[in-house]
UniProtKB/TrEMBL annotation:
Pfam families: BPD_transp_2. It is a multi-pass membrane protein. Keywords: Amino-acid transport, Cell membrane, Membrane, Transmembrane, Transmembrane helix, Transport. One of its GO terms (molecular function) is transmembrane transporter activity. GO terms for biological process: amino acid transport. The keyword Cell membrane applies. It comes from Zafaria cholistanensis. PANTHER family: ABC TRANSPORTER PERMEASE PROTEIN, BRANCHED-CHAIN AMINO ACID TRANSPORT SYSTEM PERMEASE PROTEIN LIVH. InterPro entries: ABC_transp_permease (IPR001851), BCAA_transport_permease (IPR052157). Belongs to the binding-protein-dependent transport system permease family. LivHM subfamily. This is Branched-chain amino acid ABC transporter permease.
Amino acid sequence: MTNLIQLTVSGLSLGILYALVAIGFAVLLKATGHFNMFPGALVLLGAYLTYQFHVLWSLDFVLAVALAAILCAALGLAGERLLFSRLGGKGHRSIEHLSVLLVSLGLISLAQAAVVSVWGPLTHLIEDPWGLSMIRFGGVAIAVRDLWALGLSLILLAVFYLVIQHTRVGVGMRAVASDPEAARAQGVNPHVISATAWAMCSAASVLAGMMLATEMGGGLVPNLDQIAFSALPALILGGLSSLPGCIYGGLALGLVQTYAAGYAPESMGQGFASMLPWVVMILLLVVKPSGFAKTLETRKA
């Protein structure tokens, strides 16, 4: 029972980070109409910028994370204005979508090469305030980092909900997602929507990257951007256009992966837990490609 509780908390912590990255994908999809993998690069760059500001330049940890999020938002918006928005109108709609996807994948590779060139290939510690600290409840030991990851992520997701549901920008974002042409005809400013989407995406990506790069998470490594690919099954599980679905999918995926790592027999190999999310995604795409959360939303409607 003790092991189950510890694995559950760890799984929820990992799952909420998957959810943050998946929500970055979903927000950009709603705002721009394109599936963009660039949040994976922002996860990586956000973590390394936090390391640069906090460890190398001795800035306060919270300030370092905030500056990293601001710079990543500016970088994402610059990419939208200079690259992704220019890929529209070049041919068939499917070619446009493919172009955005391929360019964003190329940018992830460039970001990974850049961090290796600037900061080197070795593992770094971002000197987070939690370290390896544990809280014990009887025989249950829970990482302080896991509790903070859950708390901060839930706060950020609550802010996202308020923005999307109760602000004019959020109404505009939902209008663009529903009917882009009609939204523009009603005076919705696509530049404001795009800027808001990139700011939200960057905040989620940097928080996820920072938490994964903590000492408890294994430190800062150049392949941190792989969470962008690991979060894809969560996005598919929840439905591409469903923000609540991203949360459900991320939490479910984190729990499944953590339980598999804790309970799967050694005969299945060390990579079984890492492989499992992809097995889930493949089966889901075959059985229910719209995602379970999307199905629930359709039934409620």
